[in-house]
Protein: Sodium/hydrogen exchanger
Amino acid sequence: MGTGTLRQENAALLVLAAISLALITILSVWKLKRFKYRLVNETGGAMFYGILLGVAVKYLRFDGASSMENHVCTCPGLNSTPHLVMVNISSEAHCYRHVGKMNPKSSLDSTSHMETFDLDVLFNVFLPPIIFYGAYTLDQRRFIANLGSVLTFAFFGTLISCFCIGVCIYGVTRLMVLLGQAADGDYSFVDCLLFGAITSATDPVSILGLLSDLRVDLDLHTLLFGESVLNDAVAIVLTRAITTYDGARPAFDPSAFLYSIGSFLGILLGSFCMGFIFTVITALLTKLTRLRESPLLETSVVLLLSWSSFLSAKASGLSGIVAVLFCGLSQARYTVLNLSAEGRSRTKQLFEVFSFLGEIFIYSCMGYILLTFPHHVFKALFISGAFLSIFISRACHIYPLSLLLNLGRTKKISCSFQHFMAFAGLRGAVAFSLAVRDTTTEAKQTILTTTLLLAGFTIWVLGAAADPLLHSLDIRMGEDSEEDSKDFSSEVAMRGPDTARGLWHNLDHKYLKPMLTHCGPPLTELFPRWCGAFARIFSPSQIQEDEEEFCEIEPHTPPLNLDKTEHPPTPDDDHSGSEHQDDLLEGDLGLGTGPVNTTEPSVDFV
Amino acid sequence: MGTGTLRQENAALLVLAAISLALITILSVWKLKRFKYRLVNETGGAMFYGILLGVAVKYLRFDGASSMENHVCTCPGLNSTPHLVMVNISSEAHCYRHVGKMNPKSSLDSTSHMETFDLDVLFNVFLPPIIFYGAYTLDQRRFIANLGSVLTFAFFGTLISCFCIGVCIYGVTRLMVLLGQAADGDYSFVDCLLFGAITSATDPVSILGLLSDLRVDLDLHTLLFGESVLNDAVAIVLTRAITTYDGARPAFDPSAFLYSIGSFLGILLGSFCMGFIFTVITALLTKLTRLRESPLLETSVVLLLSWSSFLSAKASGLSGIVAVLFCGLSQARYTVLNLSAEGRSRTKQLFEVFSFLGEIFIYSCMGYILLTFPHHVFKALFISGAFLSIFISRACHIYPLSLLLNLGRTKKISCSFQHFMAFAGLRGAVAFSLAVRDTTTEAKQTILTTTLLLAGFTIWVLGAAADPLLHSLDIRMGEDSEEDSKDFSSEVAMRGPDTARGLWHNLDHKYLKPMLTHCGPPLTELFPRWCGAFARIFSPSQIQEDEEEFCEIEPHTPPLNLDKTEHPPTPDDDHSGSEHQDDLLEGDLGLGTGPVNTTEPSVDFV
Structure:
């Protein structure tokens, strides 16, 4: 009991320290923002205070004396006196993963027991809601209007960026070998590619913080935020594929290469399906039952099922974060339409709090680890190469891809947009979570150190420079999203109903929406006759009778409202036709051809 | 990496199982409730499904083969290769506490690795929000009007109940020794008192579920719910004090007895202060800053600081649950007045979701452990004695204390109320958490088994019998709380402003409210001159100017609204004088003399 209580008290103290840090961050950043000092947001503040805590722990070295006593270790799941005990004092950790524990040559210093910021908790409890909330609050209509562009940037952009950074860094490491700063085998090309994949994940959290504080053009907002959300998925899966390839191989191994490509596609698709399956379950549950009568139950069900998508993906060896990302995207498209107005605002507010707190905890942990991780490897050349390469890689994918995309887009991505997109590649939580996962070799320790420095630099320096840059690029700011969304729908309404209906539109409008929600044409019309029974199950008559009136109200509160934090959705907006126009937009395969300049050419675009 | 991933996948599967259980519970109980079948609520349902899962695990014995492989054990905090490794295969567990692990003689059966429902997580993450939410949603005005009665029932009632059950059970164990069913030293008197303290904790969760489904008389509601919330605190601290006394002593030890009385009072007062300190911090933060502008920040700050009260109490060796209970009570009295309407509804909804899910997880865990705990000790005599004694003890404290209280109360506690209160002693989460804390001896295993059975019996049988009993006792049901609260205030308004102002009223109205909120008389008037600077700090002029208009609106939304789940507080209720009348009521030292029958005698009371 005694040691257990002592451990519990220590754990309580640790969590208290984290909470105090979070409170200080919240209050000071909020105070700064009130003075219209927009250069710092929560992520930067949290990281700063994490560093301060790190300094305190590192240099004050408090309670170093008691750090020896609490190394009591139990085996969860062991229920009896075993016949044979094998003690394996190897370098691998299983129950908990702690930064810096991997290296057996380290000395037991005073920081060791403060390092129990349990990263598993951080990444399994706090990261999923952040990613989910990011995906859930994407402006659905604009996202789908720009789907093609966003997907291009996220998929091909990340691949280009990863390869580009990999090549640059490989060049730098060769230079390091030439200059005698590293041995020949220290950094393999695969290590460099791994670094490329890790630092290709731009961070939705800090970008969202930046964009919502600055209120930029909504299309730019969608492109940037959508890209940063989706490229996390690609970067995560890419990192896993590169790890699968195994960096120890000296020569190129075609079979391992093909296998890792297969694993890349398999995990990406598998996680996507996992996320979507849980959305289907949630949507059907909320559609076919009268759960809508109790907002508390709706919220609980959405929360539990969305979290299940993460856990199921983890349990089946897929990527949990990618699954929860796609789950968030599809929940916002389908399930939301089945929820009551109160259930909708409650769900959003719940995830908002989770995401907000998770963000603060993760970023302060980043700052803390930047200072206290005992195996930092600072290689000046590697770091400067990395700083250079993230800009090069960003330029290498934004400009050429924009050029290509502009061939297909009616509303072009202007040059100033491209400049800003190339600039706004902030790195954050996902890159950190990927880099910290494995710190066994010196190359990987260099990667962690450099990633943390990159994150700090991009969040503080680029984040602070964004405001002046937007001014100098003359991108319209401070615009009202409601007003704009009305413009948007009226622009599209002019285009007539039957232009460019694509595959996605067919699937979404004709099958998914009617099946998963009460909107769209009745299922019995859509399905061939022999599917009649199937169609009837998904549109039960006794519910549908009084649902219809509900469905008619629904389009008045477009999912766009999800984006606004302070006000719950108001059903009195005048968007009577928005649902219909929404579907029209989707017909363009998302290349951004929606809000055309044919009706009124916008002066804002160069 | 491999074993780590495997462990993570197993953990994910386990959490998935818990989530599925929760979903099934939510959906089926909700479905039953929709058919007006009010006999089952979430707690009973969750326990039932927990038992089903237990049956499945116990009798299907699935994946028993793999249970051996994952017993990998790491020592968190150990950062280097130690010089000396001492492996202590004792019966005590430190990092994690698992039910059934304490007994070294058990065989490694297939259920062992499913038993990693981590009880620490359950009691440190899910229990505090339940208790907090219970205290937070107490009807403040009625609670304070009945404060004296509630405190009497909670404090003296629990002491009487503990002693009464202890004596009854001691008699039973003597009988068991006589009949040869137990050895002489198996059950000491202290063990019996411990059982008394554990089973004296009536459960706010299931009582709240019961009362809100049945909509009973509001005074009865307040008495029952208030008692069940507060007696948890007394029972928890009493259990600790009895544990401190140490049951191994054969003879009565006066110094240990005095020490445990001291520890009882010390922990109770200490935890109370800890909870109150964090309320003061929260209230001052929300009063002195303009946090009200962002409901997200308000909610986060209230959440973090309330959780801090739990953690700080734990870290300083006090009772976290008691601290969070008092924190919830005082947050609802002071901090709530400083929050914006949206912040208020958000905070409540957040805790509601936490509490709802926590409740389901804890009760299904209870059901699961009832079936799978490998060291159950079923003693028929002990169990029947326990069933008898909880009724006797309940009768022994409700009737005499009501008699005493009725001497001082203007609005008497009627006989039918007394009968229902004696009947409605449901046992649940807190009793379970106390019983499961220590299962090292056979006596304590008997206590756990019996407590689980008691909880199951009271929740299912008494819960289901409550509806018919209320009918037969003719206690008014289905009444509208708003209407009633208006009656209530108008009744009191007749009584003139200066009767029976007590100590509490003075403290609360004259000092705490003005200091912690924007309501009540200005501080500068209240404090003597030499405190002028102090008073000015707590009523900063630049804020107070436009706060005044806010404070005038506040009394229109009385904290009573907290009790209503579905609707956010509406500021258009016509309670213009309620704040004032509220304070009048508090002057009666809470003996329930408030709503006097002088104006219109109520026919409902015998």
